[in-house]
Amino acid sequence: MVSIVEKAAGFEAMLVDLADHVATITLNRPERRNALSYRAYDELEQGFRLAAADPEVRCVIVTGADPAFCSGDDVAEIMAGPKPVSKAPTPVTYTATPAAIAALECDKPVIAAVNGAAVGWGMELALFADIRIASERARFGELFVKRGLVCDVGGFYRLPAIVGPAKAAELLFTGEVFDAAEALRIGLVSEVTPHAGLMDHARTLAGKIAANPPLAVRHLKAGLTKYAYGDPREIGAWAIEKIRLLMQTHDHREGVASFLEKREPVFEGR
Description:
Helix content is 45%, strand content 14%.
């Protein structure tokens, strides 16, 4: 059987490794702080699908090449650049982000080893994991409101269940960035470790999980997902519909322009 590593050999934005039944998916655009391009989104989706399909994989670690975990969308390509031509019929049927659904539907336990900034869709990616551990250098932020947008499925579907609805509202409405200590205090992460030991700690934890009966672990994950979170597809499709709508607004264009021009935005509510 062809392994997940061989199938992912052509990836450009990700590195995929498999050792002792633990697959490690590493976002590998460090020069862009692991910002997600269209290709990176596609490879991330493929990576989670491959991990779910490979019987040798019993646990997945997702992380980023230093200095960041994931800084969200590549603003220059995805928000400011030309949009891909849609082949969808009219009217458009909105669906959840494929990479988000692939991560959420992966039936193997997923550990996010957050080694630096996890902001925007990077924080969403961390939320998709079953367990989050953070280096002391980690930073988190649901920055979507700063770009005149709403969050993806993670912020609506996972964040309120993890930190509570009121704290989730605060994080989503303000878009503020907070550190690893605050993430631990509010229960977003399970542990904060010294930066140099983060991956060793993640691998040790993943090894403990991978040493257990894989079928039992998969059913445990299925039960936790069903009773703690429910089905993400409907809320994911709703979020994408609102994101597409908001991307046509002046305030979104102003949010992007101010980011690229390194100035404070002026929002007008239109």
